[in-house]
């Protein structure tokens, strides 16, 4: 059995070995042991870290046909299907030609044509599998066996580096693998990538450096969709022309933009938050949950103080920012979106800007963050929604689930929003209200579900409807806060990611307690002639209570967390 290093530098040798061992023409071609083998070989984070990461820095030094790991967002699933060879026959010993011909002649009258062909293949040809490669290097092999049972149908995805990925994530993922660097040195000299292009209009953030590759698969996985965050383990292929449209396409060598390709062996969807120290599937381990539930209250206090340092000492607003970090859409019963928590921080006066400091701290804490000024020019000139014709062009809001978008509405100057600007503003509002984003096509629009953490800093009420708005009250002398150590930052990051994804239950006992309390409040308000609490206000408090409980490390709502949520809700209303 080859070593892990050999599998990384020469994965196609293992593919061929499995093909020869497991495949026959009567087998289901979709699986001859490759997927299972590579899943078992790289089933932990430690093992996965041995595979070199494919990005804009590594693509020119990684050898073709080596195993690579590509963490990316699926930007477009509608690239053309491609017909390619599944396998082709190559001669094992041309000198034996006369012998094989004689054998075939002797049995010609007694053996079927199919048996004769199988006999020839067995003695004279070796079938070479091309599934995870660019195809046979010998062009003559293309005509060696044109039968349809040796053809493959490939699906392609246009994938880009994860939009908004924080610097601390990139540093974690790009740890050098010294052993691998040595192993591939000779291969790199003779067989390295020569072409790496990107299509700027297919990345959501204009002008930002990023990496793109076409991921090719031999089957269509309906569970993979646009904006999904995936980790691809596959074979690095040559740069290829990007193909679009609905028809079948044959591999084309014509001129045009050429993008690196990855022939996917494994293509895993990763849970939305993307913390690199969680499990392979992006979910927290049992040990992580147990540890964080014990340490949650202590970390919570330190984290609120750290966030408050960006808000001029406003600890109440900092607590709401922390709850915003922990929010995610967890269900959509009957069209209702549960778990979203868009937040508007309203600056009470000019001259106390908090946006830049808040953006800096958020990027230190969360894996995927993008901060942008909501200026009149940006709204009128850029696209915030994706649109497509022959290819899908991106928009600012086409990001993976779990991405934090910070928008600075204090930068919005006076002027007129043109038609594009109004559409952009509507797209932002739809994300805030329903966590959906319309993809605009020539003859119809298609709504896709999102889960974007939207935080807006504004002077006064935001133009975008939000779930919660709080007026900032900076302290006159907020004092100096000691920056957290790297160990504290690591603890903060793990706390947010684990508790955000932690299982949460709403007990029947607490439901009855809340219902009883709600009815008593309404009776008291009716008797006193004051405003009744509405069902929407109750729903907000219940949603807030879930986030408070999670922030305290609780997997089931307690009376303490409920009372704290109600108190927080009243404090926000008191600020106006």
Topology, pairings included?
Elements: H1 4-9, H2 11-22, H3 34-41, H4 45-48, E1 67-76, E2 81-85, E3 87-91, H5 97-107, H6 113-124, E4 125-129, E5 151-161, H7 167-173, H8 178-183, H9 185-190, E6 212-217, E7 229-241, E8 248-250, E9 258-269, H10 286-308, H11 315-326, E10 343-347, H12 355-365, E11 369-373, H13 376-381, E12 387-388, E13 392-393, E14 404-408, H14 419-434, E15 436-440, E16 445-449, E17 453-459, E18 468-471, H15 486-501, H16 508-528, H17 535-551, H18 559-575
Parallel strand pairs: 2-8, 6-9, 10-17, 10-18, 11-14, 14-17
Antiparallel strand pairs: 1-5, 1-7, 2-5, 3-4, 5-6, 7-9, 12-13, 15-16
Helix pairs in contact: 5-6, 10-11, 10-15, 11-17, 17-18
Q: How would you describe this structure to a colleague?
A:
- With 576 residues, the chain is of the alpha/beta class.
- It has three domains: 4-86 and 130-269, no CATH class; 286-502, 3-Layer(aba) Sandwich (Rossmann fold); 503-576.
- The protein is 37% helix and 19% strand.
- The protein is built from 18 helices and 18 strands.
- The strands form five sheets. A five-stranded mixed beta barrel has the order 1-5-6-9-7. It has a five-stranded parallel sheet with strand order 11-14-17-10-18.
- A hairpin with a 4-residue loop joins strand 15 (436-440) and strand 16.
- It is globular.
- Residues 94-109, 139-148 and 247-253 have low confidence and may be disordered.
């Amino acid at each position: 059995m080859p070593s892990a290093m050999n599998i990384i530098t020469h994965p196609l040798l293992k593919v061929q070995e499995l093909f020869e061992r497991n495949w026959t023409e009567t087998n289901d071609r979709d699986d001859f042991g490759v997927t299972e083998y590579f899943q078992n070989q790289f089933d932990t984070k430690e093992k996965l870290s041995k595979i070199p990461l494919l990005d804009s820095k590594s693509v020119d030094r990684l050898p073709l046909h080596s195993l690579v790991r590509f963490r990316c967002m699926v930007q477009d699933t509608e690239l053309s299907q491609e017909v390619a060879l599944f396998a082709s026959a190559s001669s094992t010993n041309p000198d034996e030609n006369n012998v094989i011909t004689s054998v075939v002649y002797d049995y010609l009258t007694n053996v079927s044509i199919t048996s004769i062909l199988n006999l020839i293949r067995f003695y004279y040809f070796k079938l070479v599998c091309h599934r995870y490669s660019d195809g046979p290097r010998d062009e003559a092999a293309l005509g060696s066996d044109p039968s349809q049972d040796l053809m493959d149908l490939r699906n392609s995805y246009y994938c880009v580096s994860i939009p908004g990925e924080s610097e601390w994530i990139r540093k974690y993922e790009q740890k050098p693998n010294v052993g691998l660097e040595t192993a591939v040195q000779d291969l790199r000299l003779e067989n390295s990538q020569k072409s790496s292009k990107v299509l700027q209009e297919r990345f959501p953030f204009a002008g930002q450096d990023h990496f793109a590759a076409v991921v090719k698969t031999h089957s269509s996985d309906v569970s993979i969709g646009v904006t999904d965050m995936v980790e691809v383990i596959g074979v690095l292929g040559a740069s290829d022309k990007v193909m679009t449209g609905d028809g079948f396409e044959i591999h084309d060598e014509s001129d045009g933009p050429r993008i690196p390709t990855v022939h996917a062996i494994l293509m895993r969807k990763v849970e939305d938050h993307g913390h690199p120290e969680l499990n392979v599937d992006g979910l927290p381990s049992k040990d992580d949950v147990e540890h964080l539930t014990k340490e949650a209250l202590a970390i919570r206090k330190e984290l609120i103080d750290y966030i408050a340092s960006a808000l001029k000492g406003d600890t109440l607003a900092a607590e709401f920012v922390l709850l915003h970090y922990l929010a995610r859409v967890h269900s959509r019963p009957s069209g209702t979106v549960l778990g979203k928590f868009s937040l508007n921080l309203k600056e009470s006066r000019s001259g106390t800007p908090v946006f830049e400091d808040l953006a800096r701290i958020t990027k230190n804490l969360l894996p995927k963050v993008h901060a942008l000024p909501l200026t009149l020019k940006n709204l009128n000139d850029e696209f915030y929604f994706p649109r497509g014709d022959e290819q899908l062009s991106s928009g600012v809001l086409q990001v993976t689930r779990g991405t934090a978008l910070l928008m600075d509405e204090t930068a919005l100057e006076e002027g007129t929003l043109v038609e594009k600007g109004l559409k952009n503003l509507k797209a932002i509002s739809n994300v805030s209200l329903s966590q959906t984003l319309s993809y605009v096509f020539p003859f119809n629009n298609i709504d896709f579900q999102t889960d974007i953490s939207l935080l807006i800093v504004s002077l006064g009420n935001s133009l975008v409807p939000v779930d919660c708005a709080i007026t900032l009250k900076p302290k006159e002398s907020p004092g100096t806060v000691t920056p957290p150590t790297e160990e504290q930052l690591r603890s903060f990051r793990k706390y947010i990611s684990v508790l955000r994804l932690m299982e949460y239950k709403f007990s029947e006992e607490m439901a009855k307690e809340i219902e009883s309390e709600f009815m008593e409040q309404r009776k008291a308000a009716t008797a006193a002639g004051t405003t009744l609490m509405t069902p929407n206000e109750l729903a907000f408090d219940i949603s807030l209570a879930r986030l408070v409980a999670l922030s305290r490390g609780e997997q089931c709502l307690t009376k303490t967390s409920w009372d704290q949520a109600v108190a927080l809700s009243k404090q926000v209303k008191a600020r106006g």
